[in-house]
Amino acid sequence: MAADTPDARRSPRVANAPPGLALGAARGRENVQQTLFTRALAPRPLPASRMPSPPPKRRRGPFHPLTMRPNAVHGLLGNGAPIPQQTMPAGPRNIMHDIGLLPIASPSVDPADAIRQAPPPPLVGQQPDAHPFQPFDSITPSHVLGLGTTSFYSVKYIPQAQQELIAIAVVDCIEQIENSRTASDDLNRDRALKALQILPVLFTRLPPDSQTNHARVIALRTQQWVDGNFALLIADYLSDCALPASDRPVGNNTASSRDRDERTARRAVHLMEEGSLSRARREMTSNGLHDHSDPNVLAALASKHPQTRKPIDSTFLADPNFPRIKIDPDILMTAIRELDHLAAPGTSPWNNTFLLAISQVISFKTPRAKQIILSLTRYGELFVNGDLPSWLYYLATAVRNVSLKKPDGGLRPIGMGCSLRRVLTKAVLHEGVNRKIATVVGPQQVAVGVKSGISMSVFGATIHLGDDPEATTIKADVQNAFGSIERSAVVEVLTEMEDPELRALARLACCLLSPASPITIGPVGARVLAPCNSVIGLQQGSNEGMPFFALPLHVRVIKKITRLPNPPLVSSIADDINLSGKATAVFAAFPQLTSLLLSELGLTVQPTKSAYATHPNAAIAAGALTPPVPLGQREQLPASTALPALGIVHGGVPIGDDVFIRLHLDDVWKKVEADARRIHNTLRDHPQHRHQMLTLSTQHTIDYWLQHVHPDHTLEIAQRMDALITELSNDIAGIDIDAVPLGPERKQLPMRLGGLGLRARVQLRNAAYASTVAKVIPLLAPSLNNAGQTVPGYYATPHITQLIGAGSFDNGSYNLGPFLASGCAVAKGAYAAWAELQARVAPTGSLTPASGPLAQPFSSMGAGIQKLQHAITAQTEESEHKCLNDRIEAMPRPRSREAIVYRAVDEYSRAFLTVLPGGKQTNMCSAEFRECYVRYIAGKSPACAPFEGQQLNVSLRGGPLDAYGDIAVAAAWTGNQESIFRHDPIVQTLASAIKDVGGYAVAEDSAFFSSVLPPAAIAAAQAQAALTGQTHRLRVITPDVVVRVDPARGRLQLIEVKTIAFCPSYYTDNNAALPPGVARRAKPLEAEYLRKARAQDRVFGLALPGPHLNGPNASIGPIEAKLNTVKPIRGIVIGAFGEVSADTHSLVKEIAAQGGRKMYALMGVSPMEAAARIKKQLIDTIGTIAARGHAQLLLARLSALAPIAAQRGNTTNSNQQIISLNALARAHYRRSIGTRGGAQASAAD
Fold it and tell me: Does the CA dihedral 1025-1026-1028-1033 come out positive or negative?
């Protein structure tokens, strides 16, 4: 029997570890065991309050620091099912899952990745003068890669107090790395690098006991770092790693279909509440993930990652004169601030949440913490220039693979890398660098640094095939282009760049592409190594992927094609390569393209999947030749279609005959409709979320084709979309919106104009197509800039150049006249769309409007206008809004309810439509949201429909229940429901918001007026009231809120909150001078207050009555005098439709300004931007509370008629809806300090 020594127990793979990784790898398990043994015998020298908890019980709940069982069975993947050894795909190595073991690439892959063993380090505490970072010798590659027992969930929010300390810890590590490099101390450099790699999980991993306070645990860990107690910090971490498998359950795939659907709905709702509608959409429309325990899946994954490649020449790195990469700290800061905190982490412990937390420099107080961005910049320059050891790049380039299911059942591997690496490469490949790359690869390549590049390529191909009688185009299909390109070609091409900044990128390419990077698979807690490495090709989704692909493709292939004796025009969207021109040139160039791609880049063109298309007149000429690829056409046609459908799909857009385009758009619609209904059904129990998806995502899904396909072809798909939008919106509302007077018009208007924002796609298609044509056409043909230099066109065939007209866009000029005169089908379509748009907004008797973008003739369509489609849409919507207002103005008084509602609603009324659901303030149950939705458009209440006409037994304003529920809301009931649901939440919200911004606020301050009353007067009044029985007259005025918004410059003010219902007193539209609603209630508010104060003075004998009953007293009493010190009274009036009074607008603006001055540092933005965000949050919260409160009150009162508690939801338990602006400030970095535009394009990511 062999001796049981560390060397004997060491895996043979450790003998080949990369330099530096073997530090502790060989004895990783022994160190863990000894630490646990030592801790069991000798308790830590810590106070009792910091003693570790007892062994944790089995955890329950959503957050589990999952891990794989130690000593896992060879081949164990995913859900724990062992795979027979003979079914494993062939690969360069076996899979080992034990702690401290590494994925090793075959030496034949790249000698630069050779792995050696370092001497085992001494045990912790063995040397009296040990380096402080010596405890990090115990950290192994498993901990960095998240394999097996080393994977943990991280907290979603790092407390503000700890962010600064963690930032200092990062600065400490980077400083130690730099000092060790200066001293040529490789051992301590590697220790500091290990510390930096593992730092996030040391601090932010969730504790084993799910009941433990996360903030307290993070505070304890950061204090250990501050105290220099690294040994204890590492021991705690390794102790968590070594927990038994029973305490770290691994997820399984045995859930039922119903459970999976409910889990999908919960996940989608969570993502939407975090502001990421695009992620929520992908969650609901995804085909799911492949199971990595399936041998066929592993074989398919291995086929996507070839394991052989050409050697990479890195000798240029030894040249001291070779350019170096510089990182701008401001660009790095911007890259960090733009991170998405919802993005899934890769293999590294570094994640976006951690980076966002440590970068809040503006809120840090200590100078050392404020150095974090500069420190990361210095570390980043070491990283991107290849100055760090090779083992670090081996780990930094590791990816976590998720295998998505394609619609046809195929596998699409998605790789997620290290967040720190991603942000550093993004800072290197910033916009300026991408523009330089675009000048190199353009105009043939439109996927890098070119705005509207895909649109230019699509319209160029459309015009070429549709109007050039000699046109032929081949679309080349390259197999697995990104995953198969030779990495050596990328490095070689970069070393040959003339621009020093681009040539310096060879350093980054060499250090990122040299390693045979490990791939991990499986869920968190059971993550293992894939049977293949990332050896060749570029990683999908990486920042450097597209530039590093486009440059060698252009230099080694496309440039050579353009230099052929009879060259075709080449237009490429990433790896989609089109050859256009005459058939003879195109057919002759295709074999050259195939040969160059294979010899220069190792890429294979699939001729059977490639296709060619021709102009109808060129088909005969092309038919006389031998085409190298099949003719583009649909192989399967409907039985009713007799003609062949000829064409190709370029950039997702069909280009060909009418039948081909129609059938392709039919396929597009089937996918769009299926996804829309799937989303709608998944969110069946969440109408608030359904509305968000409908307005911000679903209705936009066909916009791309509306922009790029002729309006005549998109009419049918636009009509289908409008019908689907109507169906889904009616289902959300529970009524037919089009049956409501003014409903169809309001449905299509934007929310800012009192509509629902569900724009008709039939009308939008003209603006979408015309604006895209105006943007693209000037860029297709060559032109001269103001300096007289030639700007190349992006689809400059001789025919297209002739169609556009020489000089049409030279020297800043803009003339689409020659293009229209050419008779081109695209020009005719754009002209017809423009004319129809002009007619929509033109006054009666005119063909064009007098002003606005649509006043321009077609020849100057869009000249000098940024975002033309937005400008056109805004003009047409304003025109429709004016027409609707004119109709209402012409109505006889009193006007209809629908007209009154449309005139009354404001930005607070519609806040519930736009606010992100989540939290007490904004989440509604289904019945509540439906009531708010229908009331906003003046529809009849769905909840009242079953009870319409029933008698209400109430004390005042009783009567049969009406269809809108107005009687029920306005009636006087016992139980103080009006205050509970409508009044008190607004009072508490305003008081809480003012306190949060540093102001003074007291709600229901009964002492404000009573403090001025003499005790003798109170006693006398009480005695008099006892005799008369009118004790209610002794109740002193109690203001709703006493405030001073700005303590430094403001004064005390009284806020009086009033809520009104739809009743004749306030909403009869018979007075043109005083509009109905909140203004009518707010106007007499101060007079009422003054009358009450005078009456109180008389009651307490402090003033004598004046000559008039309701006029001034004979003298001013103390209560009236106190009131005079705080006038004018600010009247916060909440209307029946969520609208608010003018004082509400001014008060919210004042609170936001004060909050911006106080909280901008906490939010990490400028005071002006902070004020704007606080104002938006206050509007959303107050508006949603107002709308929801009305619905809650109605539903609560309807419960007196019938038991509908299930329909009401939890309305009676939702009266404490208090906003916290401090929570808002903290939420901004959790939501990546982004905007909701990202949700559409974010909340659509």
Answer: positive
Structure tokens that stand for 66 in this block: 């999952």
H or E stretch covering 1228: helix 1221-1230
Distance CA 469, CA 622 (A): 11
In sequence order, the β-bridge partners of residue 647 are 656
- DSSP per position, 424-477: HHHHHS-HHHHHHHHHHHTTTB-SSS-TTHHHHHHHHHHHHHHH-TT-EEEEE-
Is residue 183's pLDDT more than 50? yes
Summarize pLDDT for 396-455 with one digit per residue, the tens: 999 998 888 888 888 888 888 899 999 999 999 999 999 999 999 989 999 998 988 999
d(CA 329, CA 378): 9
- Length of the chain, please? 1245
Residue 314 sits at φ, ψ, to 5 deg, of -110, 15
Q: 952 with 968: CB under 8 angstroms?
A: yes
- CB 766, CB 833: distance < 8 Å: yes
CB of 149 within 8 A of CB of 522? no
CB 1060 within 8 A of CB 1078: yes
pLDDT average, residue stretch 191-195: 94
Identify residue 1096 by its one-letter amino acid code: Q
Can you tell me the distance from the alpha carbon of 1230 to that of 1032, in angstroms, rounded to the nearest whole number?
51
Residue 605 pairs with which residues in a beta bridge?
Answer: 478
Give the whole-angstrom CA distance, residue 104 versus residue 701: 45
Q: Tell me the C-alpha to C-alpha distance, in Å, between residue 22 and each of 130, 171, 391.
A: 19, 25, 10
* Sheet hosting strand 569-573, strand order edge to edge: 569-573, 576-581, 472-476, 611-614
pLDDT tens-digit map of 109-162: 332 332 223 333 333 333 445 678 888 988 888 888 877 555 566 666 788 888
In whole angstroms, what is the distance from residue 1061 CA to residue 983 CA? 12
